[in-house]
């Protein structure tokens, strides 16, 4: 297989990247993109079969090794097992991509249950916190590394209808800056503040309402999943060696 970034600061040859939510959507594209740049990949999500399928695809398309792992990132006690499995298989983690997330719809704010609220905070904030602590400490004690948090524009500009999710992503943005200070200088931590990407979640949207919203974007459309890869690869690699604690917006120019 060719190494398209060999000899450039984007090269990840010999590196290992752990991608949560790596089985589908943005995470699947991120895993493939980092593998194309030379990294071996840990593909983590709840559904182990989907992770296995995606890991096989990564190896078939890039020649890189890929470890599938079933885990619920909102379950604190499951996370050490994920990190240990990655170190047992590869001996290192150089890049952690906290990508797993969910933003369930609800009718009214009063109808949001404690269970739903806790789940949204658990997957979007608690999981990235715990994983970053487990991996960041080992990175800092070893060869260093890069943590990339996949956040959302609503964490900066909340909209009605997604408030627990928006609050969780705002927390993730805050955590991004704090992690950069905690594990720097050898570990960098940045966030990609995503606008609207056309993944599985977009199947639940009203097409007319989305078209009306997209007409207000500078690029007049939602993003294709592969359009997040360049930014994550930049943040994961030495190409961004003086960038940490940054929130980088990738949203096609959403107002
Ligand atoms: N798409 C957008 O427009 C958009 C906009 C802003 C931000 N984002 C953010 O981008 C990230 C990826 O979104 P996406 O659109 O790619 O979502 P997606 O297509 O729904 O995929 C979500 C991924 O996360 C995994 N996942 C969900 N809950 C999990 C859990 N509790 N534990 C472990 N893995 C879990 C899923 O696999 P399993 O079902 O197997 O667990 C899947 O691999 C999220 O953090 C999301 O908030 C997306």
Automatic annotation (TrEMBL):
UniProt keywords, alphabetically: Oxidoreductase
Family (UniProt): Belongs to the short-chain dehydrogenases/reductases (SDR) family.
Source organism of the structure: Phytohabitans maris
Span of the signal peptide: none
PANTHER family linked to this entry: 3-OXOACYL-[ACYL-CARRIER-PROTEIN] REDUCTASE, SHORT-CHAIN DEHYDROGENASES/REDUCTASES FAMILY MEMBER
Spans traversing the lipid bilayer: none
Pfam families, alphabetized: adh_short
InterPro entries, sorted: NAD(P)-bd_dom_sf (IPR036291), Sc_DH/Rdtase_CS (IPR020904), SDR_fam (IPR002347)
Keyword Transport attached: no
Stored Gene3D superfamilies: NAD(P)-binding Rossmann-like Domain
Name of the protein in its database record: SDR family oxidoreductase
Entry keyword Signal: no
């Amino acid at each position: 297989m060719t190494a398209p970034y060999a000899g450039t600061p984007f090269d990840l040859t010999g590196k290992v990247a752990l991608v949560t939510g790596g089985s589908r959507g943005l995470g699947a594209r991120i895993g493939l993109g980092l593998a194309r740049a030379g990294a071996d990949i840990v593909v983590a999500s709840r559904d182990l079969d989907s992770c296995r399928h995606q890991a096989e695809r990564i190896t078939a398309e890039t020649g890189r090794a890929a470890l599938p792992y079933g885990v619920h990132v909102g379950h604190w006690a499951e996370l050490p097992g994920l990190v240990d499995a990655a170190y047992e298989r590869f001996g290192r983690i150089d890049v952690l991509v906290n990508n797993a997330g969910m933003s369930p719809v609800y009718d009214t704010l009063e109808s949001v249950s404690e269970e739903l609220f806790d789940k949204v905070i658990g997957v979007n904030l608690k999981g990235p916190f715990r994983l970053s602590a487990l991996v960041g400490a080992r990175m800092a004690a070893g060869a260093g590394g890069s943590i990339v948090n996949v956040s959302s524009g609503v964490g900066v500009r909340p909209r009605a209808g997604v408030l627990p999710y928006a609050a969780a992503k705002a927390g993730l943005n805050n955590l991004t800056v704090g992690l950069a200070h905690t594990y720097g200088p050898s570990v960098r931590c940045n966030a990609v503040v995503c606008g609207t990407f056309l993944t599985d979640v977009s199947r639940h949207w009203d097409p007319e309402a989305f078209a009306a919203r997209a007409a207000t974007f500078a690029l007049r459309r939602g993003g294709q999943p592969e359009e997040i890869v360049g930014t994550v690869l930049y943040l994961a690699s030495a190409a961004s060696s003086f960038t940490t604690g940054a929130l980088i917006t990738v949203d096609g120019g959403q107002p």
